[in-house]
Structures are given as C-alpha cells and as structure tokens.
Amino acid sequence: SHRATAWPAPQSSADGLVEDKDPQRSPGDAATALGPGAQDMVAVHMFRLYEKYSRRGARPGGGNTVRSFRARLEVVDQKALYFFNLTSMQDSEMILAATFHFYSEPWWPWAREALCKRSKNASCRLFSTGLPARHHLLFHSLSQNTATQGLLRGAMALAPPPRGLWQTKDISPIVKAARRDGELLLSAQLEAAKKEPGVRRPSPHAPYILIYANDLAISEPNSVAVTLQRYDPFPAGDPEPGAAPNSSADPRVRRATQASGPLQDNELPGLDERRVPAHGAQHHHEYELWPSPFQALKTRPARKERRRKGQDLFVASSQVLNFDEKTMQKARRK
Amino acid sequence: QWNEPRICSRRYLKVDFADIGWNEWIISPKSFDAYYCAGACEFPMPKIVRPSNHATIQSIVRAVGIVPGIPEPCCIPDKMNSLGVLFLDENQNVVLKVYPNMSVETCACR
User: Fold this and answer.
1) What is the distance in angstroms between the Cα of A129 and the nearest Cα belonging to chain B?
2) ipTM of the complex
3) To the nearest 5 percent, what fractions of chain B are helix, strand and coil?
C-alpha cells in the first residue's frame, strides 16, 4: 500500500492548487464557457493550466496533453464511491503522471466547532472531539462491465489537514498499472480508519483526476482533426452518430453574397442552338437559317457615332450580351 | 489583399472556430491568428524568400527552359508555432492539448 507521502506530482498541478486560497474562485469568462459545472474545480484547474501554457509556453507536466476526469458518485454497500471513466484516453497518449485531487473537510475541534456552528446541526457536536480520525484513500480498478468491486490498486493513509483545503495525491503507478491491465474504470473511496456511525457525507466538492500525457501522434499530419473534427464539414446524407449534437442547426453566419440577378450565359445573342430542320443531305450553314438581328452586316459608323450607338444599343438591349463586329465575323465563320 | 506583395510572403488570416463549427466543444481560444503563405517564387529568387537549394536549382531549370513544364517552386510555411487548445472530449471532460504547426511564423520557397 502507499504511505501518505507528499506526492511528487508535476509542479504545474501543485501550483494551481496550493496557491489557490479560494478554490472556487472562477478565472473569468472562459471557465464559465464550459456550461454546466462551469465553476467546478476541475474546470478552474484546467483553465489555469491552459493560461500558463498560453502565456509562458509552460508545457503542462512536460507533455502535450492533460486530460481531466470528473467523478461519478455512487453509494455501494453504504459506502460513497467515486468512479472515474478513463476510456477517453487514446492509445497514442503515453502517461507521464496522474494526480488525484480531493477536498478535505477540517478535522480539528475548533474548526469542527466552527463547522457545527455554521451547520446548526445538534448531532454535529456528537462526534468525538479527540484526535481527528485518520482516513484511508482506497483505489480499485475494474474493466468496463464487471459488477465486482474490482482489484485493489492502492491505499493511502491521509493526514487530516488543519483546515478544509484541496489536496493532491500522485496516483501515477495506480493509473499506469490499471491501464496496462486494460481496466479503465477506477473507483476511489475515502474510508475512515475507525468506523464512524452512518455513511460519511460525500464532500460537496467532487474529486477529480488529471492525467498528464505525451501524445505521440500529435505531430502526425492532421492530428488536430483526429480530436477536434467531430463531423465531416460537408456531411453526405445524415451525419454520423457521433456528429456534433446539433450540427444541422449550423450556428455559423453565412458570408456568401447572393448571386446578383439571373446568371448571364456566354452564348452569342441570336445565335442560339436551335435545331436545324431535318431535310436534304446537303449541308446548310446553320447560321443562315437563324433569324438574327446581326445578319445584315452594317457599315462601321464613325467612332463618335458608334460610341453613342453603342450606348443606345446597350441601353436598348442591356439584358443581352453585345459583341463587336470582329467577334461576330469570327462567330459567323465558325 | 489587393495591395499584398507579389512575392512569397506571410499573409494575415484569423481563424474563428465558430466559422468551422468547432466552437461547441472548444472552450479556448475562440479564435487565433493562423496566417497563410502566398506569392510568387520567380527566378531570380531574393534571399527574403529563403529558398532551399533544390528550389534554387528548380527555379533556374525552369527559367532556362531546359525541361518543359517545370513549375516554379511553391510558397509554403517555413517556421510554424504550436497552439494550446482547451476543449471538451466526448465524455464532456475538459482536455488541454498543445497542437504543433497551427500558425505560420515565416514562409519560404520550396
């Protein structure tokens, strides 16, 4: 089992907590952008790691990936168990370190006194005010679909803190061993060394796990698409089951301007592709049969005249493309 | 864009994750300056486009016309920067990944 040693977790994970006097202080808008649970400690901690990297380029834990895992609380046999589903880790992610973060209520009498005063609960004072009970942190790992309690992976004795604060334990060996055995469901249980009446009330601050890893595939071409492209930008048919929840209600603002007016084709005016009536074998030049305003070649008017005429022509038949004589001659020849 | 230099150089491009539909799961950043490379790698190439030796040779061969159909070298990113992205994975857990080669620092002819 593990002695309650000061965990040698990566410096970055300690900074975010130890210096954090008020763990619930939100770091601003980005953490609130997380949606439900925006104020939970794991979001605050992850955003701090992100800020540290963005400002100083400090690689979190020396790797290129940090995954956080929120706890799912279940009461099994009168015991509060926190479950962590580690299956979202990718095979290419080599674990550098793993840390378990949990909030410890204060255990000293005066702190307890303050707590009881705040909670105005008569039975609160019934607890022995002697030495604080020692606690153990037990970790079990189990594969996805087994009902057993799983394999005991580690136990740590917890020295009770002088006041309520977030604590961090290095659980790297536990997580690495569980992953090696393919057991990616971890349970954590806070157990009192000596029996306490009733179920210990789970802390209002849910514990969480951080795994610092080096993603060996992140330098592959297009690695950003592997984790961030959740659906094909041009879905053919219905989106895949894993597509973004409401990819159909596309929130993006269309920027394309509408095509102005009907599309002009490039056909020469009056020389449209009408069928030549089927008769006699002799080959007629098709354009002789087409009624066309351009058939009788006009003499070239003077430049001034032409410009005016050109404008008139343009004004008169602005919806039809107009070509100069040279182009028309070429077209007729063709 | 119209008064951009003809020569191979870095051009400004800001990418907003909302425009590519990734903003639902990307927490931060919401957008970033990605830049891109564009412009000519014509003979003779000035030092500023930092041609590789191969690009210099290819450019000469093309200019001399020894072999028909040889294109001019391409203007591509040379030095690039990483970007840290904070996002939610499929289990709605928060993940931080530092992706390499996400924005252009310098361009060159290759």
Assistant:
1) 39
2) 0.89
3) 15, 40, 45
